[in-house]
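Re: weekly structure request thread

Next one in the queue (101 aa):
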Amino acid sequence: MVAISTLLTVALTQLAITASAGSCKTFVHYCGSNLKHKGWTDAEIQGAVLRDEWNHGQFPALNQINKSTFKCAGQGKSLVWMHECANGCVDAGPGRDDYCA
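Done, posted below.
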């Protein structure tokens, strides 16, 4: 029941998201922490993950976002949740794919 209410909350948040979310370069992989440095909020990241069909309705919990990698999709407005990094996420620099440590 908690998972359903959480999913509903994120889905409703997704509807409320506007262009305030930062964008990203399509096909580039980003650490969640780097997306947040680019202006994305936790709710915007979760909403962008839900918008992408490759995630099959799965999205990261708040405590997973900073240590996960995401592939930018949907012309910079949706995200594919790639991995939760056990040892943290590494910033590879501008225009380069971030990766798990």
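The first strand starts at residue 29 and ends at 31. The chain is about 35% helix and 20% strand.
Next request, please.
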